[in-house]
Amino acid sequence: MAGAGAAVLGLLLLLGSPGGSTGPPRDSLREELLLSPLPSGDLAATFQFRARWDSELHREGVSHYRLFPKALGQLISKYLVRELHLSLTQGFWRTRTWGQPYLQAPAGAELWVWFQDSVTDVDKAWKELSNILSGIFCASLNFIDSTNTVTPTASFKPLGLANVTDHHLLRYAVLPREVVCTENLTPWKKLLPCGSKAGLAVLLKAERLFHSSYHSQAVHIRPICRDASCLSVSWELRQTLTVVFDTFSVGQGKRDWSLFKMFSRTVTEACPLASESKIYVDISSKTQENELLEVTPLPLSVHEAPVQGDRRTYAVYDLLSPSLFNVSRSLNVQLKWKRPQDSLDLSTPVLHAQRYVSGYGLQTGEISTLIYNTHPYRAFPVILLETVPWYLRLYVHTLVITTKGKENKPSYIHYQPAQDRRRPHLLEMLIQLPANSVTKITIQFERALLKWTEYTPDPNHGFYVSPSVLSALVPSVIAMKAEDAEQNPLFTSLFPSSDGSSYFVRLYTEPLLVNLPTPDFSMPYNVICLTCTVVAVCYGSFYNLLTRTFHVEEPSRGGLAKRLANIIRKVRGVPPL
Amino acid sequence: MAAPLVLGILVAVTVRAVLYRSSLAGFISERVEVASPLNAWKRVVEGLALLDLGVSPYSGDVFHETPLIIYLFHFLIEYSELVFMITDVLTAVALYLAVQDFNKVVFKKQKLLMELDQYASDVAELIRTPMEMHYIPLKVALFYLLNPYTVMSCVAKSTCAINNTVIAFFILTTIKGSTLLSAIFLALATYQSLYPLTLFAPALLYLLQRQFIPVKLKSKGFWLYTTQYAALYLCSLMVIVCLSFFLLNSWDFIPSVYGFILSVPDLTPNIGLFWYFFAEMFEHFSLFFVCVFQINVFFYTIPLAVKLKEHPIFFLFVQLAIISIFKSYPTVGDVALYMAFLPLWSHLYRFLRNIFILSCVLIACSLLFPVLWHLWIYAGSANSNFYYAITLTFNVGQILLISDYFYAFLRREYYLTHGLYLTRKDGTEAMLVLK
């Protein structure tokens, strides 16, 4: 690897590189794994692989890719992408039993992209981009079209560097029906520099990862500052994978976890290409006296960080430090609970939400969203983004927002009504949530009858409504110092905070399943015939009345039947007809 | 005569007011037979709410009313119940006055034809007397006001009532003989829902008859008057459309209203024939059949005009019925309008062949509509075919009713000119057939 790099460097110097650059751009890889036991006894494992590449992809014609995957690099330069976020999720994060999520993603596939302002036709670029991503990740992202794409105005601000924020350059789509499986994991793993052969990625075995309650894999690409002066731009690719192992199905009822039990593998070495490779285990406990967890082998260092308004302690295993593999060649981190968990350890998250559909029958219905603010004394605003497909016709005059029994008017509403078969409904609202309250948002809809070809092959399963997105700056209970992005990339990306007093949270609600009235699929020919018959009845009657005139009927001489009847009557002695 | 009419109006208004305050009002406004995507009140409120939010009501696919309705209800939204009751009353009064005038015209024409010996000798029982025609205007007004279809349409606050008022005023001004006002109301009716365009022909024929201009293609007077009427009509239509442009400063309402009426994208079930047909249509043929079904509404006009050029008001009645049956989003309010004219042809009763069975069919279907809807949508035990079958039966019933009246009308005309008691060559009683 190093030899090849030197040869390229020599070649460039020989040819006289045009920009007078000092060599191929630097890139670095960091891999981190965060194991956090959840209040209900399950365990969440979050992997993050962060490749950072100091290169201006849009300006220079780049052809040499090392740690940054070529497929994604070419995508960014061809379609002038500024930010790309793709996630594929199976399952739903149960905020009430598991606590605040680290990186929540909606069920199914979610893709949102900010384009550069030099893009002329954003819709065309979006269509082509989603098709190419569909090929790269073996997911049916090609089903993303104008009927499920929206342009949010307030919810999805760029997470990387941005100087122009014209929201017409943003596109957002969710496919709630998308299923995630091994086919999607394999290309995702292939994008990693070490593949699944070394480092933390050896733990990513599909048969264990999909035997879980929640599986979410994501790819995030964004531009970041190269250094503190921010004169030039680097590209950051973060691949994250979050998986929650269930106590009962994986743990067989016992709450003792280990890497081997979860992944059926242990870590033997760090990825040689990584500059940093760490495992963090959350060992924080609410009360300081007795520790909750016992971790073996003993961690070499302990890291404290303010996370989501809470001070947490993490045991750190640095895979690159030589002392780690002294005792045994493989690292199998084991967690044991020292005392049973009690309700003190269960912390309700400050912001959580749920959504459901109510009503009966197939004509109308109502979507209700409940947003809970459990902070004892602070009120804060939340932006709610709802995307509803066009065949559920929303009536915005029935939108009602109540908090503690009183009406709560949103300070900002952006509503874009749907156009049949062209675009979905988009409703964005900024709602103020008072402290310690429940806010209920209800809106009524009407179900449309679709053409028989527009139904899925299993129409009585229902139609999915994408999860709604809640974005908020949640005030934290303790003061937090902003973490340095370079020192602790995991913590800044998992728990971003803009200033010390609040942290950014993006939540997704459940997707909804709504039934639509269906026509009879076996009847197209019959319906056409019957309706045309009715039209023909009218045509026939009117044709007769318009073209014929009345005549006095002349008696006919009688056909054969009449003559025969008369003969029989003569025989019987009865008068003839 | 005014007193019974006022009494009838009071009864009608009371019935509507009682229903508004009862729990049935919500149930009736949800009924798809009464409220279609074109004229549901829920959508009017939604359009006005969108306007308040700063979004054009025509940017989505929920609001398909003309800007006139926005103008009207922007200020009158709180008095909506009163507005709909007043429109019903206005329609009834307009129909009353129109039929009163029409009866005078009919009587004069009959007298003229009798003096000219156009009638056969033994048709005394077919001649209409002022006595029998005395109560017809009242019957027409009451038929409209107390028709359950009209009451339901009013309680549901469907803007079909406003369309009916405009058409009633158009009929009134046509029968009174005012060319300008007739053209203006016809333009308004066409602007509201495209199909009254076909009423141009009967109105023109009536006005020509009233001015004693013979309908001959070579006659200069005929073409002069036709162009005059057509020009007045088109100019008023242009003025109304341009006024609508200035409401929201965009032409968005044209595809939203007229494009919607013609291309039928919304397949919400109603009492018409379009919805299930296009729900089960192969995509390839969709455009073809949309064109066929829309042409179907318009193409009866010329043949009917040729056949019924001496009887333009009957032509108007048949045309109204054809519009109500074959329009893209019919409701029972449209049916109520042409049914209000049935007392005008009560003298045809002896020639109607199937009136008993047809009225049974229509009543039974009207009662079965909500039942089968409930079974499909709420109980889940029936499917869409049940509701579709009742739709078909209802439409067949209406079609046969109109053709029955047409048959009776033509038969009476034949008897008037050829004599009532017809005998064959050998002296036995003759049978009349259509050949």
UniProtKB/TrEMBL annotation, chain A:
Pfam families: Gpi16. One of its GO terms (biological process) is neuron apoptotic process. It comes from the Eukaryota. InterPro entries: PIG-T. The keyword Ligase does not apply. Residues 1-22 form the signal peptide. GO terms for cellular component: cytoplasmic vesicle; GPI-anchor transamidase complex. Keywords: Signal. The lineage of its organism: Eukaryota, Metazoa, Chordata, Craniata, Vertebrata. This is Phosphatidylinositol glycan anchor biosynthesis class T. One of its GO terms (molecular function) is GPI anchor binding.
TrEMBL record, chain B:
One of its GO terms (molecular function) is GPI anchor binding. Pathway: Glycolipid biosynthesis; glycosylphosphatidylinositol-anchor biosynthesis. The chain crosses the membrane at residues 82-99, 166-187, 193-209, 230-251, 257-278, 285-306, 351-373, 385-407. Pfam families: PIG-U. It is found in: Endoplasmic reticulum membrane. Keywords: Endoplasmic reticulum, GPI-anchor biosynthesis, Membrane, Transmembrane, Transmembrane helix. InterPro entries: PIG-U. GO terms for cellular component: GPI-anchor transamidase complex; plasma membrane. It is a multi-pass membrane protein. It comes from the Eukaryota. GO terms for biological process: attachment of GPI anchor to protein; GPI anchor biosynthetic process; regulation of receptor signaling pathway via JAK-STAT. PANTHER family: GPI TRANSAMIDASE COMPONENT PIG-U, PHOSPHATIDYLINOSITOL GLYCAN ANCHOR BIOSYNTHESIS CLASS U PROTEIN. Belongs to the PIGU family. This is Phosphatidylinositol glycan anchor biosynthesis class U. It comes from Terrapene triunguis. The lineage of its organism: Eukaryota, Metazoa, Chordata, Craniata, Vertebrata.
